[in-house]
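Working notes for the structural subgroup meeting. M.R. asked for a predicted model of this chain before we commit to crystallization trials. I am recording the input and output together here so anyone reviewing the notebook later can reproduce the run.

Input as submitted:
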Amino acid sequence: ENADVMTPEENYLKAIKLQAQVSTIVTAFSRIRDGKDPIAPRTDLSFAANFLYMLNGTEPDEIAIDAFNKALVLHADHELNASTFTARVCVATLSDVYSGITAAIGALKGPLHGGANEAVMKMLLEIGEVDKVEPYIRKALDNKEKIMGFGHRVYKNGDPRAKHLKEMSEKLTKITGETKWYEMSVMINDIVTGEKGLLPNVDFYSASVYHSLGIKFDLFTPIFAVSRMSGWLAHILEQYENNRLIRPRAEYVGPVNQKYVPIDQR
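Returned structure, recorded in token form:
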């Protein structure tokens, strides 16, 4: 396959393949590192069902499929977030689809973009029990520590996606019998919102949702990439359709009239 063939038809085919391949790669990686054989996708299962099947080795129930599908949809696209903008800047130079996706993944890797729900789950695991939530969070707030999963650069009155993930978290934790993850999350939510006025974002309740689906926390960011892949690819194809080089301007505000000092005199 030639990455440099840039016709609309070829780019569309690459997008379809990437959407399918990335989920298969993530699940295969997870199983191989656990000493298990990868599982091939099934043609009779949906995208969400196939992912959980390839990850866990058993066909998921309808509640798990519905919850994971909703989580994928809620993470699929979100205007010009950091990774999406990075992808568009990359392909605006007429670089290929694969380079655009690679650039997007590089931006997503940063903990201020893609790693927040992983940090939330690490916090929940560290707290461990419902009765330890309040002292843990109040100590963190007293020490001016950042509680991940709260606040949003766009949504100042609350992230509308968080409500749906909260509902899914409650339903899943009740089904699994481990209600403490939802209960702990609600307690943290109440304390942080009450003390700091910050509301949960999409990352906060997605942590307990994924955990209840049997997903290890270090797969949270790769799963973010799996879901956001559809958004990235749509933006990339749109950029190609009516392309202009994305070149923001910058104004220098540093010192002026500086004199060059030779290296041997420094």
